[in-house]
Write a structure and sequence with these properties.
Radius of gyration: 16 Å
Number of helices: 4
CATH superfamily: Glutaredoxin
CATH topology: Glutaredoxin
Distance between the termini: 16 Å
Helix content: 25-40%
Shape: globular
Number of strands: 9
Order of helices and strands: EEEHEHEHEEEEH
Strand content: 15-25%
Length: 178
Amino acid sequence: MLLPRQKTPDLTVPLLGGGTFDLRTETAKRGTVVCFYRGLHCPVCATYLTEFETLVGAFAERGVASVAISSDRQDRAQGMAEKINAQALRFGHDLPLARARDWGLYISNSRGKTSIGIEEPPLFTEPGLFLINPDQTLYYMSVQTMPFVRPHFRELLGAVDFAIEKNYPARGEYDGPV
């Protein structure tokens, strides 16, 4: 189980356009927002990532980097980037499902074609949103079992502002007896 203030698992995936996203080498002053999404087949993901794309610059102004990652192959990740007209958001692809499990993500089986007529992969991850500190410790996380009811990026941005202003620590770190 991931705990706030504890080191997260390493995370390295190829990026669209070349290069690699490696959480260990991220240099943003206040950390990185990592959004794990289901894949090209998910219309909810497209809407969600469209919101994220519009706020990448606002996160960057606060010293926070942004990346969207899925277990999709490169061509499907490219399809999602094109679908949302991504200009600023980095897209990672080919996330190994074993690594997804390390991050506490749920994994689903394919149910065939989705409502938009795109085939689901045999296995894929359900969504997760993480804010990782520059030292690779967990600050915030939200993990879903379904594509619905996700945290809004604008609210996360407001939380970043609050945390900066109040020097607010990550919460939920206690793992002793209860």
